[in-house]
Design a protein that fits this description.
This protein is α/β, with parallel strands linked by helices. The protein is built from 14 helices and 18 strands. It has a domain at 2-49 and 374-439: Urease, subunit C, domain 1, CATH 2.30.40.
Length: 453
Amino acid sequence: MRIHCQWALVDGGVAADVEVTVADGRFRAVEVGVAPSPDAERRVGLSLPGLANAHSHAFHRALRGHTQADQGSFWTWRTIMYRVAERLDPERYYRLARAVYGEMVRAGITAVGEFHYLHHGPDGTPYTNPNAMGEALSAAAADAGLRVTLLDTLYQHGGLGADGHRPPEGVQRRYCDPSVDAWLDRIDNRAGSPLDGTHVRLGAAVHSVRAVDVDGLAAAARWSAEHGAPLHAHVSEQPAENDACVAHYGLTPTALLDSAGALGPRFSAVHATHLTADDITRLGGSGSTACFCPTTERDLGDGIGPSSELVAAGANLSLGTDSHAAIDLLEEARLLELHERLRTVRRGLHPVEALTTMATVNGHRSLGWADAGRIAVGDRADLVTIDLSSIRTAGSSAGGGGVALAAAVFAAGAVDVTDVLVDGVPVVVAGHHRRIDVAAELEQTINEVLNDD
């Protein structure tokens, strides 16, 4: 397959008339400044590498639009989130996740990190296949046409106070394995699972220092190191989390994770909103990644994290859609910079090229896909084309490649994605998912989950 791109992001800059040759799911040739080959497919607009959604809770998509009553308080959100979590079984979760992942691909996302903690039955009893829920997510990703890193999440406790951890309550019981060893056995015993490395990879996560004690943190860090696998954790999302951790351990969440051996190039701190100067130094000095999810962080009123300070300290930044208040990595990228402008009263702290790297290379690497996120020979053939003539982007192509990229990041949205290639396979063509009627499946599955009493 040959594809000729009007504009494409290659080697960190936008070039005109780029033709790529694709075979066996990889880019086999990338030529810049060439006329279209007679048999080449044409991509009009700006083509980017595939976007990586580094943090997702697929079942949260059912909450969109349903959590704004009573002034959209956190308690309104949590009540509905728990209600959805109670109602999912493997078959229903598969159908919901398939539609959610279909929405992601339609938005140009070619890989997702699924922070998966909805493991067992509603009362905490494991299914006959204890990995049935994770395998439902893997199958949904395959059907939707994107890659997934299944971040199997350790969840032990229901919360943390100054006197220690509380036991899980209600729906939290289905998040928890009986012990850390049981969690390790479950994630290591996946006979017959679809984790074949082609579209699925396995990583680990600890939900948070509120839900995992220090022994659990250390066990997850060891597993990650032994398997060379990603390790993610929610970190300092709210001040109350920091206060409880300091009261109990005398350490911030970041310092506690560091003491357990978790920080390093494989580690991603999700949210990283309320960090101390020492936290920033630890994350940066260890080469860790901070995954920001701006649409969720503003929806929940969590705050704005110190993104420019993290970059200056040496940390990488990636992007996620978390609760799916929106599924649009272009919006996540621009909000990171726009929130930073509000926080610091300065412009241009994250150049557009850096924002694009967060959404592509950094996100893929944080999920264990080091061979994706670039239009480069040998990398996975992911290609996302953005319309430069829509009502949001019209006029941008007249300014050259740099303006086209800025328009894509600061003005375009998921609706402007026209074509998506994942591992050399066309999944979105002319704005339509080839396999899924995404809107219809979302409507059906969400109504079923919320209204089936």
